[in-house]
Each structure stands twice: as structure tokens, then as C-alpha cells.
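Thread amino acids onto this structure.
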């Protein structure tokens, strides 16, 4: 007996798509009040600038705003200067962008501003995810990064898998600083 494809009804094609919801049914929000914190994820340590709140702006809107990217970069620059002071010999990269995402990339915009203000070399698209497995992603370093000290920037951390996989590519470095925009854990 031949197997039939599943048919999906398209009755509500004109209804706008709903916002992403968490398992609890709430939309992830952030009020953009700075709440710097140090976190541990297995053997890795990361710093976050903001955290998820009950009221505020939805993450989906935050990630599409160049103005908010500028605000994140302002906080990140102050934070980086307090931590490392001398930016000579440092580079900054982002975690890989999603394959289906095109156009404005929030983390890249933040890193470009940090790079121009602090004089840290930014390597755009330095890391790529090869497979689509979200639980065990396979990442590769696409560009040679000669600097021995690297800042890894990620806009939002939820599970930490992307950050862990990206940082594991930089095991041979003298120092890796993990900086996160919003802690959603």
C-alpha cells in the first residue's frame, strides 16, 4: 500500500502569523534595563548584559532594531573596557547566523559598532553551522583569526549550545571572552 502525504489545510492564509511563544505560553520579553551578570555553563563562563523579564519588548522586535543594537553595543563597549581595558591583540566574532535569516543581523550590527568604537578587529561570518541538528550542531571556523584573544558575542542565549559549540572552536586561544546580549536561561 502506497504511503500518502499529509495534507495541510490553508483555510486561514490571511491571518497574520503569531509571535513565537514559549512552552509556558508567554512571549519572551526584555525591558532593556542593564543587568550585567556572570554565568556558568558547564565548564564555560559567560557574561550577560540584560535578562529576560516579564514586561518589555519582544525578542523578535529587539532583534530587528538597529537602534536597540546601538544601545546593546554601548553597554557592551563599557563592559569590555572595564574588563580588558587594553584592546590590542583582541578580535570579536559572533555565533553563526541562522541559515534562513537574511537581511539585518542583530549580533553582526552590535559587533560592527563595538569594533569601530574600540578598535577591535571584527570577523564577520567567521563561524558556520554545517548541519541543521539544533541539539548537536556541527560548527566550522571559516576564517583564520590570528589574534590570540577573542570575544564571542551572541545576542540571546537560551540553551547555550551555540555558544558552547562556537567557543569549542577556539580552544587553542589564550583567552576567550563570552559576551551575551540577553540571558534567556
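Threaded sequence (185 positions):
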Amino acid at each position: 500500500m502506497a504511503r500518502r502525504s499529509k495534507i495541510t489545510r490553508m483555510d486561514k492564509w490571511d491571518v497574520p502569523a503569531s509571535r513565537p511563544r514559549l512552552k509556558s505560553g508567554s512571549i519572551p520579553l526584555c525591558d532593556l534595563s542593564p543587568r550585567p551578570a556572570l554565568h556558568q555553563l558547564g565548564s564555560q563562563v559567560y557574561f550577560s548584559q540584560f535578562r529576560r523579564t516579564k514586561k518589555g519588548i519582544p525578542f523578535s522586535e529587539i532583534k530587528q532594531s538597529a537602534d536597540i543594537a546601538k544601545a546593546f553595543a554601548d553597554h557592551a563597549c563599557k563592559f569590555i573596557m572595564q574588563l580588558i581595558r587594553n584592546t590590542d591583540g583582541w578580535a570579536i566574532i559572533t555565533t553563526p547566523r541562522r541559515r534562513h535569516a537574511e537581511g539585518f543581523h542583530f549580533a553582526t550590527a552590535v559587533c560592527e559598532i563595538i569594533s569601530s568604537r574600540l578598535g577591535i578587529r571584527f570577523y564577520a561570518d567567521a563561524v558556520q553551522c554545517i548541519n541543521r541538528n539544533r541539539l548537536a550542531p556541527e560548527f566550522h571556523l571559516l576564517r583564520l583569526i590570528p589574534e590570540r584573544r577573542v570575544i564571542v558575542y551572541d545576542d540571546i542565549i537560551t540553551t547555550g549550545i551555540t555558544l558552547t559549540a562556537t567557543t569549542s572552536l577556539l580552544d587553542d586561544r589564550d583567552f576567550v571572552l563570552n559576551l551575551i546580549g540577553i540571558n534567556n536561561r
